[in-house]
Amino acid sequence: MISVQRDDFDHCEQYQALKEEADGDGAVVTFTGLVRDFNIQGAVSGIHIEHYPGMTEKLLMHICSEARKRWQLGQIRVIHRVGTIGPQEQIVFVGVTSKHRKNAFEACEFIIDYLKTSAPLWKQEGTSEGMKWVASRSSDQEAMDRWANTANLS
Amino acid sequence: MIQIKFFASLRESIGISSLNLEYAGESTVADVAKELVERGEEWRLLEERDVLCAVNQTLCGKDARVNDGDEIAFFPPVTGG
Prior knowledge:
Chain A is α+β, with helices and mostly antiparallel strands and about 150 residues long. Chain A has helices at about 10-20, 55-70, 100-120, 140-145, and strands at about 1-5, 25-35, 40, 40-45, 45-50, 75-80, 85, 90-100, 120-125, 130-135.
């Protein structure tokens, strides 16, 4: 299940849905990203996320299929919010089920790393000087690069 | 006709979110960028190395082929998640 939406989501509902759809899987791993209330320049009063409608959904689907090529997975749920989001609010959710925990942990991390480096989403932060575009971070690309040799994992 | 879209800081700098270009036989995304750069100083951003592009909503290099009817997008490095 992929969703790009303005509205907030209920983490418990998402977990419950994954648990119900798990169909014998022994592991559910979820990741939830929140808006930080600080960055290197100081306090952040919230964020605004712009995206490329159509391509974002297409890319999230692609990321899920890439994860399925690497690990045996049951259910995958990815939600990304767009628009204006306040400090400490939820931005992104990734939930994965699998027979065993290792696959679920790794796939969840792979999906968020891949999303952060290739999904067409752009963040602005509210600072004391107004809204500022966030610069991409090389540490995100390095996190993604770690998965380069996992293409043939079963 | 080629539809061209711009996003985020690139959209703000250029001052336009999309435009249509009569297809004139451009063969690659780089050719399209080269044509747009003629429009003025701020359009030169399109040729910066870190600007990403997509053809029909798929990420690609600037050497990607372009055909009549395609949707092309230019945007800065992504920062979601």
